[in-house]
């Protein structure tokens, strides 16, 4: 059972702790509230994690829905190039992100690096994918063709976030 920790955000800011923003509709915005991120090795807070409220979630979903049409209309090569840019940007800050993961989760630095390299590799693999139209069945007078296309916005919460931390 996790013990609740009451920490004043001002005390974290005064201690030089990191604070993060939310990215909504292409802009970094302050969160409705924050909660401390505890380093499991020291049991001390080291950052403030942004926490969106329902209206911020609604704005983010609306922005994603608006962006969907232009994103899905982009040529696949352009989308792939953007995924590669993200992979390159993550790789250029690999050590920063690995240190952050280690502080946040208490995992060894080498494991944090491997987790990030897995994410970077996944982005690169997705950038290389090409889903072509394919003929599934052809019979006299008829044929079945599979066409794959983007369907819409997807939201996901990673497995590492407990329900209690989302409320």
Automatic annotation (TrEMBL):
Pfam families: Aldedh. Residues 32-158 form the Aldehyde dehydrogenase domain. Keywords: Oxidoreductase. InterPro entries: Ald_DH/histidinol_DH, Ald_DH_N, Aldehyde_DH_dom, Aldehyde_DH_Superfamily. Belongs to the aldehyde dehydrogenase family. This is Acyl-CoA reductase-like NAD-dependent aldehyde dehydrogenase.
